[in-house]
Amino acid sequence: MADAGPASFSTRANALLRKNLSYQTRNIWSNIRLIMIPFYLCVLLVGIQALFDSQITNSADNQCGCQCTLTNENGKCVNRTCGIEYSSTDQAFFCSIPSPPQWPPLLQVPPPQSRAVRASFLPEIGLPGESCRRTGSCPVTFLFTGSNHSLGASLYGNMLPSSVTVNSSDLLQGLAYNVLGTETEAELTNYLDPGIASDLPIYNIQSRCISNAAFPFSFGVGPLKFQKDLRCVQGLNLWRNNSKEVNDVIFKGYKKGNPEGKANEIAAAYDLLNTNRNNFNVHIWYNSTYEENSRNRPSTLVRVARSVNLVSNAYLQFLQGSGTKMLFEYVKEMPKQETSLRLDIASLIGPLFFTWVILLLFPVILSSLVYEKQERLRIIMKMHGLGDGPYWMISYAYFLTISTLYFICLMIFGSAIGLKFFRLNDYSLQFVFYFLYVNLQIALCFLVSSIFSKVKTSTVVAYIYVFGSGLLGTFLFQFLIQDSSFPRGWIIFMELYPGFSLYRGLYEFAQFAFQGNLRGADGMKWKDFSDSAMDEVFYIIIVEWFLALIAAYYIDKIVSSGKDPMFFLKKPFKKSPSMRKPSLQRQGSKVFVEMEKPDVAQEIEKVEKLMLEASTSHAIVCDNLKKVYPGRDGNPPKMAVRGLSLAVPSGECFGMLGPNGAGKTSFINMMTGLLKPTSGTGLVQGLDICNDMDRVYTSMGVCPQHDLLWETLTGREHLLFYGRLKNLKGSVLTQAVEESLRSVNLFHGGVGDKPAGKYSGGMKRRLSVAISLIGNPKVVYMDEPSTGLDPASRKNLWTVIKRAKQNTAIILTTHSMEEAEFLCDRLGIFVDGSLQCIGNPKELKGRYGGSYVFTMTTSSEHEGNVEKLIQDVSPNAKKIYHIAGTQKFELPKEDVRISEVFQAVEKAKSTFTVFAWGLADTTLEDVFIKVARTGQAFNVFS
């Protein structure tokens, strides 16, 4: 197959996209179950709303009262008449009111236990003692100030009447001569004034009165009759020198906000400013603490009109005399049609549910990213040429597409089943909000995934975040939003937490939908964007998305790519690796080379020459490569690789043998970019592994020790993906995949089209080898490729690897001497981080195997006879093994002849019993054991 060259950015992006789509197809039912979660929650909200409507909204108490006016002979009502005259106090609110009632104007006054009295924190201004609170006789206090004290005294002398005046023929006009007050809070409307309807008394505020004297009167609107007592209370008018003193008294008495912890409130205060006979100018302080200041709900009514009328009427009497009065007879609402209770309970509890629904994507995306990290799928894709750019672009677009479809389905479900939360609010505004937030959520997933290495841990933490955000939003954050005294700056600070910014946006949608449904109007529109809190939420989300994305990419570069933390400060322009001139100075120096290792010394000299040449004749060149792990817990640093120099030309399979812990894995990890060398360097096709690893990956194949596969993708889909990364396209790609499946016996019986999760261990191993070889990479690293295979499959796999090495440099690690001898053109035995010998199998056996191995098994009492036999045959023989009657000896080849050994054994059989015996030439395994022991002993000694 011809070399296709490195794959372009778009080709690699296309490969990852196709792989993700195949993966998503395999997980289609998981996706359907995920999308059904918001559907179930929407149905649950509709059910809650229906239950609320049936039990509360449509109950008789929340409808205009009706009475049967005609029945048939069976006593069944055939005609019902509804109206306010048939309604209770609660029902009257819902009746049509073509001519709303006229209510006497009331002044909001503090309750008796909260009225202003003398206190240590207040100046002496003429307030009564605290004893009046025990008798309920404390006066209602009004404060005055201004530039003209005498004028002020005249005005507040005219404000309050000194006696009760009631005209029974015209009750409203009669009551207008009096100053009536109530401690009952106002409602949203004046169709039924709660000050009249409640059981609390109505106060008649007079300048002089008998304490608690009551004057009964009846007040009715149609069928609604109220028997009330006008309870006399004294009004106390006090003068202060300036507005600052007035403000100080009001502030210290407000809502128990004083050292004594008791409310000490006044009814109202007037600043007459520069008022005179030609100019009426006044500022009024009034109590608005009963008013709800939430930006999304209408305020309750404030009883301030009567305060304005009192001072205006007093000024008129000052100008025209006491006989002139400007009566304030009544207050009246606008006419209204019959209404019904429309409480959208689903919108009120919607923020909690929809916070959970949107955040539910967080653990899904996070676990997917951590899974690739845990299973090392990300790094194996990178080793086969998938760069950071295509990975980030496609992965981000992939998750964004899934998230967008998810919240669009949520909006469609919610609207289809009738949730006002979705129907009343502008769809485009909702779409933009959800779109911005899922972008932030994806960026956060990329950022947070760098913290975790296990899927289970990340999933648990993610679900704690999901449910914790919803519950904290409902029971803490929402409470603080509705508290008008809580600083707005702290609200914005809390919204920096992504879960709260999502909750705030949903809360705004819910409030607009609730009020819109209540008023029969629309919810939030773009014109409400600045009036609500959505503007600040949008700004916070956009800024956090940008910062999270930058931070995630930066950390990913450091963690997964091994970049220096200050990589962005390095010069952006540097010479191309192909134009790099090798340095004449070598990193580190070989102090000496043991005379027993001429092959290693020859390899070092070869590497030195290659480093001085700008040649790429050798696919792999390692120059004095070292890796030192820092010491931990008081242990000294560990030298894993001790200055390895190696050159592997194209077309050669180099076998690396060595005991466990010898440093083979560290060497492979440095060559594949998983580890940075402590010193030294390596060249792959002339590219430096320290600086140009991203370009090295485009010509590299890797068969890791453990199979790194997607459980739900088939073998064919794996090969198609990695083939595309190697720039194979069209019929060439199809042919390469077919040949790869055939070569590793995964073609017949439809095995190649089964998910890899159903493969046996041997089938997965063969697929991993096929992946490493597809696309004819220039360099292939194989870590024990035939582990776990049966003999027939192993032999077939060896044939595949041997055929593939024609135009490829292969570095192979193995513990199978048979595999090494069959596949490898050269072998290197690696012990304690250093290369002990190098050469082809025949050379190594000739160099280290100049002896025969003699084995004999007898009974224990004849072991001495065996030793005497061997001494007679070869005086220089060396015992290398002894256990339970079985002994092994090394016989130098120059000391014996094979025929003499046979003769000696035949003679020995006549004197003692020989159970078994054998004579073998030195094997590669013997060479490995001998070199490993010698190398370990030398390193311990040195």
TrEMBL record:
One of its GO terms (molecular function) is ATP binding. PROSITE patterns: ABC_TRANSPORTER_1 (PS00211), ABC_TRANSPORTER_2 (PS50893). InterPro entries: AAA+_ATPase, ABC2_TM, ABC_transporter-like_ATP-bd, ABC_transporter-like_CS, ABCA, P-loop_NTPase. It is a multi-pass membrane protein. The keyword Nucleotide-binding applies. The chain crosses the membrane at residues 34-52, 348-371, 391-419, 431-453, 460-481, 537-555. Residues 620-857 form the ABC transporter domain. It is found in: Membrane. GO terms for cellular component: membrane. The keyword Phosphoprotein does not apply. CDD domains: ABC_subfamily_A. Keywords: ATP-binding, Membrane, Nucleotide-binding, Transmembrane, Transmembrane helix. Belongs to the ABC transporter superfamily. ABCA family. CPR flippase (TC 3.A.1.211) subfamily. PANTHER family: ABC TRANSPORTER A FAMILY MEMBER 7, ATP-BINDING CASSETTE TRANSPORTER SUBFAMILY A ABCA. This is ABC transporter domain-containing protein. It comes from Brassica oleracea var. oleracea. The lineage of its organism: Eukaryota, Viridiplantae, Streptophyta, Embryophyta, Tracheophyta.
